[in-house]
Amino acid sequence: MLGSDAGRTVAVAVAAFGLVLTGQTTASAAPRTVEAAFGGYGEWNADPYGSAPGDSIRACDTTADGWSIEVKLDIGRDGTWDRTATTRGHTSPYCTPWKTGNLKEGTPVRVQVTNVGGDATYPKGSLLLSHA
């Protein structure tokens, strides 16, 4: 009987350890912040984290300076902007809702964050290369 109890204890311990390992290997990183040249930032979130959905972008304008923040996502890095989040038309401080859509894990993406105003785009922006 003692051997049977010891065997069950070992089995339970091994199963619990397996659950801990499984939980730790699940991807869940905080959104990556990409600074604009001035007055705000963009965020890229590859995996769900808190209230932020995975495969998503958003733009945040932090300064009432007449410039808005625009975040563009190029899925597959093929040179085509597939998703855009912009603070145009909103009073600062303002963050857009997350713009999301499911992507296959490992898909290469390019995230560009720029300042925009009217028809102008500030020529210096930030670029992030990442994966879904």
Please render the helix and strand layout as text:
Layout: H1 2-25, E1 32-35, E2 40-45, E3 56-61, E4 68-75, E5 83-86, E6 94-95, E7 99-100, E8 108-117, E9 120-121, E10 126-131
Antiparallel strand pairs: 1-2, 2-3, 3-6, 3-7, 4-5, 4-8, 8-9, 8-10
What report would you give on this structure?
This protein has about 130 residues and is of the alpha+beta class. The chain contains one helix and ten strands; from the N terminus they run αββββββββββ. Strands 1, 2, 3, 6 and 7 form a five-stranded antiparallel sheet that branches. The longest helix has 24 residues. The protein is globular and about 40 Å long. About 15% of the residues have low confidence.
Largest sheet: 5 strands, antiparallel
Going by helix content, strand content and strand pairing, the class is: alpha+beta
Low-confidence residue ranges: 6-26
| Overall pLDDT confidence | 84
The ordered H/E elements are HEEEEEEEEEE
**Helicity, in percent?**
10-25%
- Distance between the ends: 52 Å
Strand content: 35-45%
* Rg result: 21 Å
Broad shape = globular
Count of beta strands: 10
> What's the tally of helices?
1
Features:
five-stranded antiparallel sheet; alpha+beta; 10 strands
Question: What's the quick description here?
Answer:
With about 130 residues, this protein is of the alpha+beta class. The protein contains one helix and ten strands, in the order αββββββββββ.
